[in-house]
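yo

u said u wanted the structure for the complex thing, so here. seqs first:
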Amino acid sequence: MFGAEVAGGPAGAAVIIGVVLVEALVLYVGYGILEALVGPTLRRALGGE
Amino acid sequence: MSELELFGVAVTLLTLFAGFGVLIGLLFGFFGMGGSFLVTPALMVMGYDTDVAVASGLAFVFGTSVIATLKHRDLGQVDYKLGVLMIAGTTAGIEVGKLGLHWLQSIGQADLVVSVAYVGLLGGIGAFITYTALRGDGDGGIDHDVAEDAEVDAEDIPDVAKKIQSYRVPPMMSLKGGITVSLWMILAVAFATGLLSGLLGVGGGFIRMPALFYLVGVPVPVAVGTDLFEIVFSGGIGSFLYAMDGAVNLAIVVPLLAGSAFGARLGAAATALVEEDDIKVYFGVMLLLGALAVAVRKVGGWIEMPVLDTVALVIIIGAALLVSGAVVVSSIRELRTETSSTPQTAD
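structre next:
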């Protein structure tokens, strides 16, 4: 995927770890926004209101 | 008809990994453990090479722990001072544990000793947690939702932790939850958990998290958050080392992480809802079933019956489904209880 998995050595490893780190941060922020938008509604729905 | 692909990877495979990620993330977010324990064996049974399974599992654990640590940090559940001390003590312990492992390998006993120790430890911790939760004594009674500066009740601190806290060898360290422990005791616990981690060749979350609670005495949420903080470093370094050999497969890691980030958010949110005693017994049973799965896999290797690998995987995934289902059901039940006990106001 993205051709990054074929890379080796310190530079390739840094790219792969960087991709995982950036994805983690994007997901954290993205899901955070999603939670703020739909969280209260979902909470009420699950709570049976 | 060719299968639909995204970035050169079959969409069904991406969906499978993302769904598996949700399940793992939920457990990881709630308990602060369970990542490589579930992912690596699953990838191996799916036919991936061992180095790819281990490396991709580690990279996934790194990404998940980054997200889960950020979430626990928002809830004030990470003790950085304790985390740094644990990293120092654990690193030293891992190095000594690796020396022990090399010695066992040199006398040809490594596989037997490590397998028996791993199954015994996993099963022992599982049995202990299940027993204390079923007994319903003070050892299992800390709520998940402690505030950042809240002091933990003395009766909620396990007896072993009280004993360890009573050794007042300076310098003393103040930790989250209002407890005070000798620096040397923290380093000793960290060293011991690192020793086991290095000897058994495992990440150690299932050892460290209970150790932080049962031995150091920090509240469970802080134990989980601090353990996750430590996993960011151990997972990052480990996956970097494997990635240098090109063993990390992003086609596995990226969808798994996308799913688990969602699951971890649910799991971390559930820690603020669910009474720990409701879930602890399931957690203990999951560890016991994990021990059984590892034992089945090892026996399968010894008697050369590969089908037992699949049986082991079914046990592990079944246990994970059982516990994550229990977390979701308990969370919804708590939400409904909260809703029904909140007086409705008229506008």
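Residues 9-46 of chain A form the longest helix (38 residues). The mean pLDDT of chain A is 81.
cya
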